[in-house]
Design goal:
Blueprint: E1 5-9, H1 16-27, E2 30-33, H2 34-47, E3 66-69, E4 72-75, E5 78-79, H3 87-96, H4 100-113, E6 119-123, H5 126-130, E7 136-141, H6 144-157, H7 164-180, E8 193-196, H8 202-217
Parallel strand pairs: 1-6, 1-7, 2-6, 7-8
Antiparallel strand pairs: 3-4, 4-5
Bound molecules: cytidine-5'-diphosphate.
The site of cytidine-5'-diphosphate has 15 residues, from helix 2, helix 3 and helix 7.
Length: about 220
């Protein structure tokens, strides 16, 4: 297979990033986590102390290069892979990603990055906006309790602790903001295949998508 574009979308905590990274490793493809890119913009805006509600604040993107490479995310040459997972970034990222200026800048970078080679790209608008011609589109879902439990487990491994109830609230708020925003909201593409991962292990989901990819590529 060459030049295959696999688009994976879904709500917060549906497992997109982990699953996409595993698929890319298994197939030897390039993975691009677009959520990490929106998080990097949010981190930079917070560090600069900008007014996050003002769309013109994000002009700094004209001279800032955000890129995802080999499971790491960079702002210019600075590796911010761990820093983008902070609570402050998580609480503000849906606001930052609602601005059309921010989206235009990042969507442009994402389209460029996906031009060459076999790509797995995950996010909220990959099948609808970034790669509408993708060879295969997957929409991952899971019920909110399961998604909060997964986030809780992930947090504990990183030494962070937040109750499941708090995480459910945080995920529901983010889902609502992401699905109701004016510009490219989180939405399943008409031609995407939905996989409900509530009762599936990560390996089962990866196997399923790899099988679908192989049969699509034949
Ligand atoms: O926390 P989780 O891994 O589920 O989210 P993420 O993939 O890191 O994305 C963080 C946030 O970035 C989302 O809640 C969206 O607000 C935004 N985002 C977006 O608007 N469009 C994308 N293609 C990817 C992420």
């Amino acid at each position: 297979m060459s030049g295959f574009k696999l688009a994976i979308d879904g709500p917060a905590g549906s497992g997109k990033s982990t699953i996409s990274a595993m698929i890319a490793h298994r197939l030897g493809w390039t993975h691009i986590d677009t959520g990490a890119m929106y998080r990097a913009v949010t981190l930079k805006a917070l560090e600069l102390g900008l007014d996050l509600n003002d769309e013109s604040s994000y002009r700094f993107l004209e001279s800032t290069f955000i890129h995802y490479d080999n499971d790491r995310i960079f702002i210019n040459d600075r590796d911010v892979t761990e820093a983008i997972r902070s609570q402050a970034v998580t609480l503000n990222v849906s606001l930052v990603s609602s601005f059309s200026y921010v989206r235009q800048q990042l969507v442009h970078l994402q389209k460029q990055a996906a031009k060459e080679g076999n790509i797995v790209m995950d996010g909220r608008d990959i099948g609808t906006v970034v790669l509408p011609q993708a060879n295969l589109k997957i929409f991952l879902t899971a019920n909110v309790e399961e998604r909060a439990k997964r986030r809780h487990k992930e947090n504990l491994q990183k030494g962070k602790n937040a109750s499941i109830t708090t995480l459910i609230e945080e995920i529901e708020t983010r889902d609502k903001k992401d699905s109701t925003r004016m510009v490219s909201p989180l939405k399943k593409a008409d031609d995407a295949i939905t996989i409900d991962t509530t009762n599936l292990s990560i390996d089962q989901v990866v196997d399923k998508i790899v099988d679908l990819t192989r049969s699509e590529g034949e």
